[in-house]
Amino acid sequence: MFYNRRLPIGEAVAVTTAPPFTSAYHNGATIMKKSPWHSIKQDVHHNNTECNTGNNIETENKREGTGGKPLCSECAKLS
Ligand SMILES: [Zn+2]
To answer: Domain spans of the chain?
Structure first.
């Protein structure tokens, strides 16, 4: 990965993340898909880092995974 030093930052990121994130980039957006998370206080789970509701979950209420809950409508619109 040391050769990335010579590349512009955007390109270096693309090169570094290309193999695992190929499908995400093919969707025409650079939004990174994240593993789902949810709040123990909400009845939905989130999977989009752009989601305000998902981002506003307090750390103590945040859990990894879907929790068996449906996807948040805001995340559904963003993805
Ligand atoms: Zn959400």
So the answer is: 21-78
